[in-house]
Design brief:
It contains six helices and six strands. The protein has 216 residues and is α+β, with helices and mostly antiparallel strands. The protein has two domains: 4-125, Archaeosine Trna-guanine Transglycosylase, Chain: A, domain 4 (Roll); 136-208. A hairpin with an 8-residue loop joins strand 5 (89-104) and strand 6 (113-117).
């Protein structure tokens, strides 16, 4: 079985992938996303990829446009798989690299497949890229204020032991923001920029939120 970290360059990644669209769901490099698969077309998709390269594209559908996707998504590898008795799969996707949709393919499968390119996101394959430039302390300060305002608890031991990259990307995934805002986090050019956007969004929420807003 191929090791996750054998994807050293974008040439190691496929040019054609099936996609799983889900508005509000975000996958980023080296983060994990659990998914409950139950639609027949996506059960077939998982069946097909689990015996192949285990790679699918996670992408957001556009809330206002039926059957339309954002152009940027994240390729993920199925690193955990469980088949249930009620025609469901429980899987965990581990993010590999972001991609850009180039063209939809004409296929016979009930799920959609696309020609994609990861060329613009080569740095996604470098673990920890951009950590030194990212303001971890400022993020933790804003996170603490957010949790206090909304009477939420956090595992601070786990947070303090997390790498800066994992901390930023995990908080982006868990954030309660809109699909458009999450897409902005996904498309941020660097980890530093993603951190800045996340901090700005959270500060805006803190300044305008009058009720409790839970982290998903």
């Amino acid at each position: 079985m191929r090791n996750l970290y054998e994807y050293n360059t974008v040439s190691d990644l496929p040019l054609k992938i099936p996609v799983f669209p889900l508005s509000g769901a975000l996958l980023l490099p080296r983060t994990q996303l659990p998914l409950n698969i139950f639609e027949p077309r996506y059960l077939e998709m998982i069946d097909n990829v689990i015996s192949n390269n285990r790679l699918i594209g996670m992408i957001q559908s556009k809330p206002s446009e039926e059957n339309e996707f954002f152009l940027i998504g994240c390729m993920g590898r199925i690193t955990s798989f469980s088949e249930l008795t009620n025609n469901r799969f429980l899987i965990t996707l581990t993010g590999i690299c972001r991609f850009k949709i180039l063209q939809e393919l004409e296929v016979l499968t009930p799920y959609r497949q696309f020609k994609v390119s990861c060329d613009d996101f080569r740095d996604d394959l470098i673990k920890g890229k951009g950590e030194d430039e990212s303001d971890r302390e400022r993020l933790l300060e804003v996170l603490k204020k957010y949790l206090e305002k909304n009477n939420l608890q956090a595992d601070w031991e786990a947070i303090n032991n997390s790498s800066t990259e994992l901390l930023i990307n995990s908080l982006c995934i868990l954030s309660p923001y809109s699909p458009e805002e999450k897409q902005a986090l996904l498309e941020a050019e660097t980890l530093k920029k993603r951190n800045e956007i996340l901090i700005a969004m959270t500060e805006m929420t803190l300044s305008t939120n009058t009720g409790t807003e839970s982290i998903q």
